[in-house]
């Protein structure tokens, strides 16, 4: 087990080795802008091609259960109440009460102040991420760092993270400072992610997992998405996540594909597996299956586990459950047979 | 030089749009004399699924419209049908081998049926609803409300246009939205009526028309959990008892096949549910 300080040091050393210097604006800029650009037309054509696969019968059945087990069931509204979080948790524990073999979702994702409510509601179903049990139980993920805009001072962001972690969050979804990124202050973005990662440390030694939200809808180009992905991974993010869900366009297949390519390249370079989480805008099981195909074809099927791939979604689960009911009963189901969220 | 004919391919009418069948299938529709008339889309279970989604989405707006407004919209259909009567007479003569006089009479009857049902839109509640006497200082009111999404197997009885209208119009009066399977061998007037509906004031999704084999599509609608009622008016030739059994799983309201569907208040009320509310007579 490494202490937070030494982990941070290791991250910085790795960056220094890769960049050939400290993680300054100039060095990061040289490195990130040295990454080959993206052929946008080719990327979109590739994503569209992956979306045409026909997944039927037993494969579809497998895909549907896999999708459920990869969902971060999310509620991120200003109007969230304790009751709403509790009902979200009960849905996470048994997504389809009429079907006991329905898998549980990977995690529930809430605002920081709702973490303690979610932890309490999960009870025995909640299994904190410890080194011994990396994948048991439902996790609690919290958005932090002045989500969704990220417009707050670093001190406030770190306090936000520490608060969620101490309340029992197993995963932290942070947003990067898109303003700083777009104006070329890469060093600031890097330092922030490193600092947030350090704040994810828990007393018991098991860090909260850090998901870095790039908010690709505000990054404008695929090249920027690729650079932001590299930057987030360099700075020690465990997951890279497309969007907050508050900005349109949210997750799209080409954007996710480009992020998966970065993850693939990073795995080849270092042997480390980074997770990817498309979030926002994925509402149908048909869409979700396209993402499964893209993951399997880009980084490999071993990424289709909750440790390495997640869907950030709220309404997706209902559509997947309707599909599942259709496959179980043989007739079409309807919205009366799933929850109203 | 002789001109090539340009036969029309009739498509489905789902959610206010005219899509081809998801399955890509078509089938040839012949005249009464056996000549090729046109190709029509051969709808599949997935087209039925899409139609139910469209009908469900349209239900809130249509059932929430005022009764007076629904009446106006239905009357407008009659107006537009009147304007295109020549086309319908022509289609009926070709499809059914009817005489010009018989076809004209059928179009008249269909237009009259729309007008008749349009008139009921803001009146049937007064007839079917009631202020119930109760022994207390309360109003006790029963009002009919629309059942929801109604799946209809359209009949041929009375002609392809009249049969279709007499099945669809009464369900619309109360604010239901419908998914109709047109008659298999004479579906063209139904789709032409869809073109009338699309240019009238009927919101997209309120009427959804499928063509193809009712024997193939109807079981999927009968068992569909998001369909609230099933009108088997034209399903006499199908294995309709099994459709009824499939519908029972989700407690659908089911109307059995009938030889005749003359306009009647009973047909409107068949697709309503009675809601009864109590209300105090005063706050004193």
Automatic annotation (TrEMBL), chain A:
Its pathway is: Carbohydrate degradation; 2-deoxy-D-ribose 1-phosphate degradation; D-glyceraldehyde 3-phosphate and acetaldehyde from 2-deoxy-alpha-D-ribose 1-phosphate: step 2/2
Q: Check the record and name the Gene3D superfamilies matching this protein.
A: Aldolase class I
> What UniProt keywords are attached to this protein's entry?
Lyase, Schiff base
Q: Which Pfam families match?
A: DeoC
- Which Gene Ontology cellular-component terms appear in the entry? cytoplasm
EC number annotated for this UniProt entry: 4.1.2.4
Matching SMART domains, A to Z? Answer: DeoC
Q: What is a single molecular function from GO for this protein?
A: deoxyribose-phosphate aldolase activity
Show the InterPro entries listed in the entry: Aldolase_TIM, DeoC, DeoC/FbaB/LacD_aldolase
Keyword Oxidoreductase appears in the UniProt entry: no
> Is this entry keyworded Manganese?
no
Q: Which reaction does it catalyse?
A: 2-deoxy-D-ribose 5-phosphate = D-glyceraldehyde 3-phosphate + acetaldehyde
Source taxon at top rank: Bacteria
Q: Name one GO biological process term.
A: carbohydrate catabolic process
Q: Report the family membership.
A: Belongs to the DeoC/FbaB aldolase family. DeoC type 2 subfamily.
Q: What is this protein called?
A: Deoxyribose-phosphate aldolase
TrEMBL record, chain B:
Q: Where are the transmembrane segments?
A: none
Q: Which InterPro entries match?
A: Ald_DH/histidinol_DH, Ald_DH_N, Aldehyde_DH_dom
Superkingdom, taxonomy of origin: Bacteria
Q: Does the keyword Transport apply?
A: no
The Aldehyde dehydrogenase domain sits at 22-237
Keywords annotated in UniProt: Oxidoreductase
Entry's Gene Ontology molecular function annotations: oxidoreductase activity
The answer to keyword Oxidoreductase applying to this record is: yes
Q: Which Pfam families match?
A: Aldedh
- What name does the UniProt record give this protein? Aldehyde dehydrogenase family protein
